[in-house]
Amino acid sequence: MEDYKQKFIDFMVESDVLKFGEFTLKSGRRSPFFMNAGAYVTGEQLHRLGLYYAQAIERTFGLDFDVVFGPAYKGIPLSVVTAMGIFELYGKQVRYCSNRKEAKDHGDAGMLLGSTLKDGDRVVMVEDVTTSGKSIDETYPLIKSIADVDVIGLMVSLNRMERAGNASDEVASGMCALDAIQKRYGFPTGAIVTMDEVISYLHNQKRGGRIVIDDAIKAALDDYYEQYGIKG
Q: CA 153 to CA 187: how far, in whole Å?
């Protein structure tokens, strides 16, 4: 595993963003882990987060693009810190852009924050985590309606590696959300790390004086992914 991935996993644990135990998700599903990207709240954390996104984007998609786009709401700060991280690490100037949930009818009017989108712009989208793909289903058609842009990829921080959709969803059935998005829209997707990488790296390893994923939590994770996970 690449060094920046290992450091990012430690960063998620240190920032109390990734937790292990027993959690009830919004869907009602019981999960042995929980990720809350809203726990990145300090300047240092946001700075580091932007650098990790920048590294993952450069290694996955390269730097031949013009705009970092973050869907509202959590994607707004992500697009800003990622654009800053790309400039800091690679000296590459890219613009940031995000959408509003509702159009503004005065001042800086319209659906977008930050940069405008222009025909021919090459865009990388960023999200914290994609569970169902709903936000992309909403924002991809929006930005394509504003300008004839070329989305060259979607980057998230963590691939949960859980099945998306249901048996009636012919596109998503049997796939994780990222793979379903790639199949539906035709652009590549990536994650800074996957849950496979997280589990492999943290199992029986001490962080902050404690073992983050002990054998009991590992067994719970195995059971969870046997029921909800994707193959491979």
A: 5
Is 47 an annotated catalytic residue? Answer: no
Task: Tell me the per-residue pLDDT of 83-134, one tens digit each, with 9 for 90 and over.
Answer: 999 999 999 999 999 998 766 554 454 789 999 999 999 999 999 988 667 8
Place of tokens 């289903």: 137
**DSSP secondary structure letters along 29-87:** -EEEEEE-GGG--SHHHHHHHHHHHHHHHHHHH-S--SEEEE-TTTHHHHHHHHHHHHH
| pLDDT for position 208 | 86
Single out the catalytic residue among 7, 47, 92, 104: 104
Contacts of residue 43, defined as CB under 8 A and 6 or more positions apart, other chains included, come to none
Distance between CA atoms of residues 132 and 117, nearest Å: 26
Catalytic residue among 26, 106, 206, 231: 106
104 part of the active site? yes
Q: Closest Cα partner for 190 from 29, 52, 31?
A: 52
Burial class (CB in 10 A: 0-12, 13-18, 19+), 81: buried
Question: Is 185 within 8 Å of 149 (Cβ atoms)?
Answer: no
Residue found by looking up tokens 């009991």 in the block: 216
Mean pLDDT value of segment 158-182 = 75
CA distance 79 to 114: 10
* pTM of the complete model: 0.92
CB 18 within 8 A of CB 12: yes
